[in-house]
Amino acid sequence: MRLFKKLTTTVQCLVRLVIACAFTLVSAQAQSASSEDAKKQRSSEQLSTVKSEIAKQKSAIVQVSKKRRQLNAQLKKDDFAIAKVAKAMNNTRNSLKATQDKLTSLAKEKAQLNRDKVQQENALAHQLRTAYTTGQHDYLKMLLNQEESSQVQRSLTYYQYLSKARIAEIEAFQATIARLSEVEIEQQQKAKQLTQLQQTQQSQRAALEKNKAQRKKTLTALRKELLSNKQQLAKLEQEEANLVAELERLARQSALAKNLPGLDKLKRKLRWPVSGRIKHSFGTRKQGYLRWKGVLLSAAVGRQVTSIYSGKVLFSDWLKGYGLVTVIDHGKGYMSLYGHNQALLKNVGDTVEPGEAIAIVGQSGGQSEPGLYFEIRHHGKAVNPKLWCR
């Protein structure tokens, strides 16, 4: 009986132990399940947060891209506004120079006419004195004088000669006086024109400064939208791709021109389009794996850009990243490109000669400093300009 009780007690202890273990196991499993659920909940919340941040970043990128597009459009507008005024100022400068040269020429002519006038006055005075000293003669009496007919004939001839000479001198004097009057009137007109041109130039300078200030604001806004190295590389890639695509289109167009000589025989013989220090050389690193396909020449704003050789203008417009650009076809697959100009002086279809002014140095396309971007391409492939220019 005691043994049975002991066994019963032992069994009861074991049962209680098993129940306790089972409860503990169930409790642990419940806790584990609860912890797993909590982890899942936290992961879900984190994923939602990440997705929200990604959505925000995408939205921000879209907004930045939109803003940059708007700013680039404004930059293009600013560059064209500056180009219009700069071109007008260039024409005004040329008109001023022509007017000043004409005034100088008129002043020289006036001085010579005054000298001629003095000489003619002296000649006329001498003739009058000569006529006076020879006395007054009655031509009718001389004709009726039969005693010295030979002397009369000589006197008549002499007087006729003097009369003709005097008439010629008088006519020359009258022509000098008339031309002197014309010159003085023309001088007054040119002086008035010069004053008007100077006033126009002042107005144009004010308009230019206003447009430059607007472009500066646009550039400041663009620079605030900072790009990462990767984004900057992508931007340059896109700009270069746009340029190549445009040049390929122009190359197809230039293939129609058969009468242009090309640049094959002109290596080391051409002049640079503008004098200045080479800031970036052909083939040097630009950004990432990108290399310079041309050269960037430092030059002062307003300096004239000249064509390296004769050819025909294929392109005269604005390109993103390159500003105001002129492209000239030289024949045989050769083209030259001139970028970042302040103003373009030639239109598509114009023919140009070596050394002829085609543009004005500037900093269009978003450049912080003035200069000229210059390329030479052969069958669409960029070649080193140093092989042609000296």
From TrEMBL:
Protein's UniProt keywords contain Flavoprotein: no
Pfam families, per database record: Peptidase_M23 (PF01551)
Keywords: Coiled coil, Signal
Residue span, M23ase beta-sheet core domain: 292-385
Residues annotated as signal peptide: 1-32
SUPFAM superfamilies (alphabetical): Duplicated hybrid motif (SSF51261)
Keyword Cell membrane in record: no
Coiled-coil residues: 54-123, 180-253
Domain of life, source organism: Bacteria
Molecular function GO terms recorded: metalloendopeptidase activity
Name of the protein: Peptidase M23
